[in-house]
Amino acid sequence: MIQYKDALKKILGEAKPLASERVSLAKALNRVLAIDVCIDIDMPPFNKSAMDGYTCRKIDLGNELRVVETIFAGKEPEFVIGENQCAKIMTGAVVPEGADCVFMIEDSEQIDDKHIRCTNLNTKTNISLKGEDAKEGDVLLSKNTMLEARHMPVLAMAGQNVVEVYQKPKVSIIASGTELVEPDEYPKPYQIRNSNSTQLLAQLHQLGIDGIYNGIIKDEGALLEEQICAALLENDVLILTGGVSVGEYDLIPDILQKLGCETIISKTAIQPGKPMVFASQGNRYCFGLSGNPVSSFIQFELYVRPFLYALMNYQYKPMELNLPINADFKRRKDERLLFAPALINERSEVVPLEFHGSAHINGLSSAQVLFELPIGMKEVKKGDLVHVRFL
């Protein structure tokens, strides 16, 4: 068995980033920038009023001011503000030449239809200066940034209606197992519903990848070989579930070897999720995940997710913290690194969930984090710090 971090290092070492492509701004979410994004104008592009009020020369505050015009956002000023003059101005409007401050409407005294006076001589300037946020040519977003919703307005502001990003990998899923039926079927006493594929498609969707589901394949060597060969030819990554352990009908490892794939990982020292295969065939890759749903979920999060991101030239770093556990916790065996489901309570404590093992998908469904017990550690006491990984 290879330990978790060593396995991850080997897997990521095989990743060859895909080429870039240009996509519309509307389709750039969850994509990885292939170039630095620079802005082509100053931001703000002009001295901008930060509030509704009146704009004038600061030296004239306290004097009777003649209102020469009203400036709203999107209107070009008509006058240069001179001595004892002002303009009524709206938030976001261009501050006219000659003016160097804006005071609030609440700080104004109406003298007549054409004249006002500022009643707060200590008013702030209240002007967003041209270029104070960014200057023409500044890098706003760096290459290899994963584009999230908060980045979208930055791209728009920079005029990036078309964005250069790395391609997404084409990923296919095959469920292996004669005992499996689809979720809409009522299983016979010797069958179970295929939950892994639904789970994996959802995990891919979280990455912005639309996985291709190739269905359930029975544990028959020739049929599996044919389907795996076809999927490897048509995809960048093939994800298989089931058939990767050491049983008589666990055929995947031998089939991958027969197809000329190089096996990089054959099993890992994590619990749950020991049986797992990772193999490569040039620029094509295959993950053989456990048939148990909790194991395959955890294997995807630990290994597949960072690998797929690496193909998109992005270094994935999950949120991880050390937090106190709120109850004693024991396990029977300690030869593998344990990942157990838990919640975080209002005191930022780790609350272990009832968990019966790698097939107990309900035990995972309420989890917010996975907490770790290292190899060689069988128990922790209430209040001990444990390492948690947010889901």
UniProtKB/TrEMBL annotation:
UniProt KW Signal keyword: no
EC number: 2.10.1.1
Catalytic activity: adenylyl-molybdopterin + molybdate = Mo-molybdopterin + AMP + H(+)
Organism: Carboxylicivirga marina
Keywords on record: Magnesium, Metal-binding, Molybdenum, Molybdenum cofactor biosynthesis, Transferase
Family: Belongs to the MoeA family.
Protein name: Molybdopterin molybdenumtransferase
Cofactor(s) of this protein: Mg(2+)
Function of the molecule: Catalyzes the insertion of molybdate into adenylated molybdopterin with the concomitant release of AMP.
Domain annotation MoaB/Mog: ranges: 172-310
